Sequence to fold (334 residues):
Amino acid sequence: MIFDDRFSVAPMMEWTDLHCRYFFRLISKYTVLYTEMITADAIIFGPRQKLLTFNREELPCVLQLGGSNPQNLAKAAKYGENYGYSQINLNIGCPSNRVQNGSFGACLMKEPYLVADCVKSIQDKCQIPVTIKCRIGVDQMDEEKGLDDFVDIVSEESVNIFIIHARKAILNGLSPKQNREIPPLNYNRVASLKKRRPDLKIIINGGINSISDGLALLQKDDFDGFMIGREAYKNPYILTSVDKDIFSKKKKTKTRYEIAMQMADYIDNFIKHEEGGVHSITRHILGLYNSLPGAKYWRQELSENARFSKNGDILRFATENIEKFINKKKSVLV
Ligand SMILES: Cc1cc2nc3c(=O)[nH]c(=O)nc-3n(C[C@H](O)[C@H](O)[C@H](O)COP(=O)(O)O)c2cc1C
Fold:
């Protein structure tokens, strides 16, 4: 599937599940969405249907895989292709101990030939493109030669899209959270890679906190796209400008109220067909009214009461209340 990947929301474990992606899609029709990282073994040996099922509305949606066994990755990727995912992305950036013990994630930056084998094995089985998400290096790796070698070796296998979190990963001593904050961001290093390899699509990630900051990076022509993670989750309504400002599509933007009401309908529909609490859906939308009057009330109402709800009415109730509150504030100010 060909799509415009100038902007994407990052894969985030326990955050970007199917409910979260459906919610993002209500706000932006064209943003590229990613699954959480799913290990190849979990897809092959685990609850495959639960892991891979998604709503068609989420497309374009990239399946991110974790693993380092070329055959298993190919098998898992093929399942993903059959389920209808748009692309396969290999996670070469996760620094967690669990992932290191399985010998995948960021530690694979030290094994470019193995990564190239993994890519080849997936490509032999699948028609959809394979992309890589990595860091600028790991541990003591030389950020210059190490990253150049990694990209050169892996791109030999006709991977031409690299998403690069512009920080090193420190594998011993920093937690995954610290690894997203402590190693310094180095956008220049990623820009110099793009300069050296203009034939590749280089997507920048890490520390981009607004759409306008991302657009400013694109305007310098150093990168082909940008990816935002945490800020999109905490403040999802920033996605509202993306279809017009990045993808140049004319589209009426939805209000927060409209989005919340559509999510309430989604909850009703989902709960009818699947097990799982209302809270498993509402937990992803707590940032919708971020920084508006009443946002705290809205978050609290949903966090405390969605667990006991059987349908989307709790969301309708909280939304009607916050909208009344916002309108009252506005009328006082006029
Ligand atoms: C809760 C959480 C879970 C994450 N899980 C993944 C993951 O499954 N795969 C991955 O490649 N990166 C994962 N990341 C890293 C993000 O994709 C992204 O690279 C990182 O947060 C930097 O981007 P940001 O500064 O825009 O958040 C995760 C980040 C967070 C906050």
User: Anything to note?
Assistant: The CA atoms of residues 204 and 226 lie 5 Å apart.
